[in-house]
Amino acid sequence: MSLIPASRWSANLAHRILFCTLVSSVAVGSIGTGVANAQPLERARSAQARGDLRTAQIEYRNAARSDPQSGAIRAALAAASLDLGDADTAQKEAQAALDRGYDQAAGTALLLRTLLAQNRFGEILRGYPLVEAPDNAAVAGQIAAGRAMAQLGLGDLAAARQSVAAARRLAPVAAEPMLAAASLATAEGDRTAAEAAIDLALANDPDRQDALLRKAVLRISAGDNAGAKAALDRVISLSPANAAARVTRAGVFLQEGDDVRAQQDVNALLRSVPGSVPGNYLRAVLQSRARDFVAADQTLQRLSGQLNTIPEGLLLLATVKRALNQPGVAEDAAQRYFARQPTDARGAMLLATIQMERNRPDAAAGTLTQHVARGGNSAAAYEMLGRAHLAARRPREAVQAFTQAVAAAPQDAAIQTRLAAARLAAGDSVGSSAAAEEALRLNPDQAGAQQLAAISALARGDVVSAQAEWEKLSPAARRSPAGGTLEGLLLLLRLDFAGAKTAFEQVLRQNPDHLGSLLGLARVAAAAGNPVESERLFGEVLRRSPGNTEAIGRLASLALSDSPRATAALAVLVAAQTAAPAQPTLAQALASILIARGDASRAKAVLDTASLRAPGQPTGIMLVRSQAFAALGEWTEAEAASRVALAEDPTSIAVRRQLIGLMLRAGNRAGAEALAQEAVRIRPGDPAAQQMLVSLIQQTQGLDAALALADQLARRASEQPASLQLRGDLLMLARRPADAARAYAEAYGRMPSSTLALRQSAALQLIGQAVPSEAPLRDWLERAPNDPLALSAMAQVDIQAGRLADAERRLSVAAEQAPENGLVLNNLAWLIGERGTERDLARARPLAERAYFQMPNAETADTLGWILARYGEAPRAVTLLRQSLEARRNIQLADPARSFRLAYALSAAGQREEAVGILQPLLANAEPFAGRPDAERLLSSLRSGR
């Protein structure tokens, strides 16, 4: 990120200096010299010529003491003081010059410049009324020009326009009216008129320094650096200590990358005026560009509160503090700059970068969202917004941001690759493949794109496509850690556990810190039915990367289950969190698990560390802290914690729901309702906000009031379509499915949708109307024949009605439309596999493999295991069928049909005794179950030794 992409900031500084002084350094007329004061005057002039303004001021003072009645000396002292930035002394000496008979027009102009330099605009307008005196038109013209500048300072362009006209009429050849006219034209955005006025001033006086300065600034804004430098060179040749000229020329040199010459101008300026704010600021810029951040920080400290007056001072301060690892100060400075300049991409991205580095992706996303909403629509801004959303685990929002980035930079292969990764994280493996292919089209060597194409195919469970993409990798890419990990995943998808383990271990031997392969080994152990090793490996992942979401998610899911391994999984999480107590994702997950398991005291202790209590923690941490307080009955602390969380993220429905519950418990019904109403206002059309509000009204005011509110929301276009389902949902919760079905039907008539059709069908099924329940689904499928959710729901109806061919046809279409939908794939695989022929099992197997890879749970393990058991791969089937049962503590009686399928696989794998041990107690129970006759025949066969 470049600090100085253009000379805009230097032009701004020059504008300020020019506006405040109107003239940087001009001759004040010849000064008569007597014997007594000749020597100090010579020394003063010599000092001015070499740029030593401080010495010049001292010597002019000496000359004034020698000749106290000389108006010319006083004027020269005033001009030197003004150049030094000592406007107060300059004002006093300019008035003294006038009092001693100095030229009235020149002296008035000088005095007005000193007042402008002090921003004393009101005093000018009150003390110097416009009087068009023909006998003293030159003075009147100077007053009119000064009034114009004061009026511009106050933003009164209409009055300034009148004053400029008067000044040009009264003093047509004087420079000040022309410069005032240029300032007015600049304020009105007319650069051509501004430059024309300056050229008129220079035509009368080619060496007029303030006119040359203004000419330079306009040339910079026009992109004419050569013209700007020519004007600035002339000013500096006339007045080596001219601050505005040195500042502006240094800015041009910085823009051109000529830091050496920029440093020369800065050094010359600071020799003349060591305390110069712009000079010291430029010194800090140069030190920062040279990466001498300690020196830059020391220079900025000398500027103190004056840094706020420099257009990009806070941006530089934030950059320097970030480099010095002072993130709190850096973020504060960047935040203040961003508040002033929300459209400046440098400020927005620097602030977001600091927030990301402080593990606050939500804050970074908020910053960048504000920036792009105000027109900062660069590809870089959207790309960084996408990364922030990914870090905050919002992949869908990340996809939207990366899509915008691609639109802004369609030829950028790297952004296409990030879009592919985001789509994969959002579950859109088809879209991920498309983006990865586009990245490869743009740049066949784009790092990671080929691997992403293969991984996207893997995410769909598409072994053939994944293998094809892997084979496209170069030999070097296959040998890379990413390539080796990809090979292991392919083998894992084929349930080749030994091969997958070998592939991952080979990567780890060459790259011991490669996290992806370690995760792969943990997945292999889990899939192969080795939970102890799987838990150990996931624990090792957390030791190396405490915030790893997959490891946390796997262990958390197990710890919250009723599996015999729940306690062991919890112990692994506790050990990992103890080793990394400041990691917020891990702490939040562990605390949530402990609360769910009834151990809120330990949850509170997990969250009660200095780092996790520091400002800027993720909203989830504060929410879980509130939940822990509430579970312990510490209601005041719970409400305080939830309010802190809400202040951090006002859009969070989970936080509002928590706070609403606490407020209701405290009897603050009005406050709770106001909080829910606010959620609907700030998140229009959000179904979660709407449901929270109507549920609260039902709880506090009754069902009728909630239904009335639901109808009110349904009439608002801004709340549709989600609001149309509220009435039906309320009636379903009230156990009135018939009324709910009618409500859904009415809403469907207003605005048909898949959601309303599915809900109406479900309500009709609850009241036993099987045939009518098909009607909403059939109607919607006529409108949207490829809707995967509706097809899946209709397939279930078909199965219940015995229309298996129709069900298979619908599920096949649904699987084509939603190839990443594990539920659809599993049900289709089960339906085909139940026919049991070798051909059908061969068709069902890849579908079941894809379902299991995408959604590895008891149901998909059961489907795939049963298909493999009959397909002749009994050992692998045993592993999967064990998994399908081990989620339940009572394995024998949890699901008799699943127990039979495990026994069948065990028998086929040669483990006859264990098969008998399962079947005997299973069949001792007289309860019927699907497959009982087959189980009885199998037990008889095993007993007879067949």
What this model shows, in words?
The chain has 57 helices and no strands. The chain is mostly helical and 946 residues long. Among the domains are: 8-26 and 208-274, Serine Threonine Protein Phosphatase 5, Tetratricopeptide repeat, CATH 1.25.40; 27-102, Serine Threonine Protein Phosphatase 5, Tetratricopeptide repeat; 119-207, Serine Threonine Protein Phosphatase 5, Tetratricopeptide repeat (Alpha Horseshoe), CATH 1.25.40. The radius of gyration is 39 Å and the shape is elongated. The two termini are 76 Å apart. 52% of the residues are buried. Residues 1-36 and 889-893 have low confidence and may be disordered.
Overall CATH class of the domain at 119-207: Mainly Alpha
| Mass-distribution shape | elongated
Which structural category fits the helices and strands? mainly alpha
Provide a count of the helices.
57
CATH fold node name of the domain at 119-207: Serine Threonine Protein Phosphatase 5, Tetratricopeptide repeat
Name the helicity range.
over 70%
Low-pLDDT regions: 1-36, 889-893
Strand content: under 5%
Major sheet: none
The whole-angstrom Rg is 39 Å
Query: At CATH's second level, what is the architecture of the domain at 119-207?
Result: Alpha Horseshoe
Per DSSP E runs of 2 or more residues, the count of β-strands stands at 0
Output mean pLDDT. Answer: 85
What separation lies between the terminal Cα atoms? 76 Å
